[in-house]
């Protein structure tokens, strides 16, 4: 199919629907039989096809049961190290997509390199416990495909125990999809796009929540940083801390699903640093090869500036850095030195924090 049409994203369920109108640009999109979601290759918007095949959400009182681990595509293996500190870092440039306007150049890959340096040099994460997936890897098991990202999330949390500190970072393209099972306050599921999103589909927040939030046991903690538009609640966590337009301070909002579906952990704590975006950049910005993403830059820089940060002071510093424009990159270390500019390719205006539980953000220290 050429790049002026759309490609069906196979989620299973639903019937053949013929032509479907893109809900974003009204283009006519051919829907393959059995597809539930289709992505427009003109505006990159995602449209649901029909409403059948809805999932049954876990009952709040039912115990969480981990999914059976899947073999890694290509027969390779992820790191065998099971250190108490583990991380999965994903950066996707989408260079293989046909339309030049979809490329993010090397910004997301630079984000991953900077995050790895921060984790290993500042917080003592072992090198062999940091798994990197990009679309520039030569090893097929390290490519940021949908299957490999799923496997990486599984590797991150599998066998987690009290005292584990886990990190998930994604830099790339995010999308919104109309919710079809009533578990979203705003009526939309959020999703991240793997490098093969047009053929395999995005990864919805419901799946991300089930993969890396639900398995967290008591005493384990997960920090996620997502540098993508439409990423505000992409882990589907029940509580969101954002800037109040009335008070001007950070305030918790209850985002628990209206259906009563449980989106918390199995006793551990999950936290997501993300941001609100207007979604108007249409992926047309082409950062230079020497750039880093604004969200990733503000997080790393705030951590460097706040050696004894609380979550509240970290959010405030991140917001200040983002509002200053961040045109010039001044990250420390050998990774940051060659990166000269900051590009807001995710369109994020304000940082925010979501979590599996509410807490005093001005008293709780930030510790990885």
Automatic annotation (TrEMBL):
Gene Ontology MF annotations: cysteine-type endopeptidase activity
GO CC term (a single one): cytoplasm
Stretches assigned to the Peptidase C14 caspase domain: 84-357
GO biological process per UniProt: proteolysis
Superkingdom assignment: Eukaryota
Similarity comment text for this entry: Belongs to the peptidase C14B family.
Name used for this protein in its record: Peptidase C14 caspase domain-containing protein
Gene source species: Oryza barthii
